[in-house]
Structures are given as C-alpha cells and as structure tokens.
Amino acid sequence: MLKRRIIPLLLWSEGRLVKTVSMDTRKVVGDPVRTSKVYSDQDADEIIIIDISRDEQFRPAFFDSLRKISKEVMMPITVGGGVESLDIARQMFDSGADKVLVNSSAFSNKSLLEQIATDFGSQALVVGVDFRRKDEGQVELYSSAGSKRQLISMREHLKAVEEFGAGELFLQSKDRDGTGMGLDLEVIREALETSSVPVVACGGVGTFTHLLEAFSLGVDGVGCGTLFNFGDNNPIRAKAYLRNFGINLKKQS
C-alpha cells in the first residue's frame, strides 16, 4: 500500500515566506531556511517551495535559499515558480530540488515536460493544476499564479500532461487557498478518477479532519499552508491524529 504524505507548502517571495489568500493577498509568515528546518524536525514527509516573486532579479536569492534549505532538511524538496525552460529546471535540481513543479508551461510548452521527464525522470516532474469552480460546478484552470484562465477542461489537461511525462499532480484550489474551509473534494475525486499518477491536493486545509477527508478519497499527499502557519498545529500532531483512523503514513514519528 502506498504511504500517504504530509507536505508543508512554502511560498517564497523576495527572500521571505508569505501566505496567500485566493493566490493573491500576501502575509509574511517566516524565514525560508528556519521554517524548513522546523518542518523537517517535525516529521514532514516533504516540502514544496514555490517562488512567487515573479521577478528575475530575485532568482539568484531564491536559488541561494534553496541551497541553504537543502543542507538543513532531511526530506525531499519539490521546487516551482517560473519553470519556463530546461535550464531553469536544471538550476533548481543543482540547487537542491528533488522534483520540479511546472504549472504555466504545462499549458504553453508541453515539450518542456517531455524534456524534463527525459533528462531527470518522470518521478522528478510534478505538474501544478490551479483551479476554481464556478457556481454551476464548472471547473476552470488557471496559470500565471492563478491569474490567467486556460480554456481547456481539467480531464483533457490531466491526460495530456501525463502523456508528456508528468509523474505527479499538484492540485490546488484558487478559491479555497488560505481560507481553511476544507479541500474541494468533488474536484479532487474527478482528478483521481482521471489520472493514473499520484495526486497531491492543496487549498483550504484548516483542520486535521480535512486531511482525513482527502486521504480517505485516495490522494497520495496533502499540501498544507494555513494549517501549519497559524496556531499550534504541526506535522507530528497531524500524523498522530491520522493514525487513529488507520491512514498509512510515509514516516513514523
């Protein structure tokens, strides 16, 4: 049986960690290196670090942070944000990434997915899928940090990126980001039914019950920002709760 993963999500912006709401409003929540070390000590299975600065002048500082983080943690690191070329992906791997997360280029340049999968392996390629759901239930996909709508169905997009080499999907709700109101289980279920690669769900986790709901559906991992950024919650406590319900977790505290 595959073991499930608890994955803190870290949003890097101009040298600091921030928390967003609906992928927009930002609040500073910590230092990248210190926070990563804390999560490593608290038994997190992985971390996802995304550069949302969207400014090339900060790219060297981001790679510097990544190198420092990779020396401090004992867990896999997935890195994303502006992966527009094979060279940028290679720099991320050279700076300490175990996997790279591609979002916008998965729409505009699917050959890049194939290049990354060929050079580094499909297991090292994660495709990010940012979405929102309209009142009538229609699922809309977005690129460019949740700001640009893409006119393709989720099912069609998931099948395409898997065909081009995606080894994992990172599914994130734009509407629920930073709200703590719970994951969009309906969209997650559709993604699980469509895809044959591991799915990590994110966007809206505010309680341990939300983690249980997602794992009970069959996701391989859950990305957590708000849950761990505010209050006394941490991966150790989350795992203790989930083990009470028989969830098979990657690490044992």
List keywords for this structure.
single chain; 26% strand; 253 residues; 12 strands; alpha/beta; eight-stranded parallel beta barrel; TIM Barrel
Can you say what the CATH homologous superfamily is?
Answer: Aldolase class I
Proportion in β-strands: 25-35%
Strand order of the largest sheet: 1-4-5-6-7-10-11-12
Instruction: Give the averaged pLDDT, no decimals.
Output: 94
Straight-line N-to-C gap: 19 Å
N-to-C SSE string, H for helix and E for strand:
EEEHEHEHEHHEEEHEHEHEHH
According to CATH, what is the topology?
TIM Barrel
Beta strand count: 12
Q: Determine the fraction of residues in helical runs and give it as a percent range.
A: 25-40%
What is the gyration radius calculated from CA atoms?
17 Å
How many distinct folded domains? 1
CATH architecture designation: Alpha-Beta Barrel
Task: Give start-end ranges of low-pLDDT stretches.
Answer: none
Please report the number of helical segments. 10
Shape: globular
Structural class: alpha/beta
Q: What composes the largest sheet?
A: 8 strands, parallel, barrel
CATH classification, class level: Alpha Beta
Helix and strand arrangement:
Elements: E1 5-13, E2 16-21, E3 25-30, H1 32-41, E4 47-51, H2 59-72, E5 77-80, H3 86-94, E6 99-102, H4 105-108, H5 110-120, E7 125-133, E8 139-143, E9 148-150, H6 154-163, E10 168-173, H7 185-194, E11 199-202, H8 208-217, E12 221-224, H9 226-229, H10 235-243
Parallel strand pairs: 1-4, 1-12, 4-5, 5-6, 6-7, 7-10, 10-11, 11-12
Antiparallel strand pairs: 1-2, 2-3, 7-8, 8-9
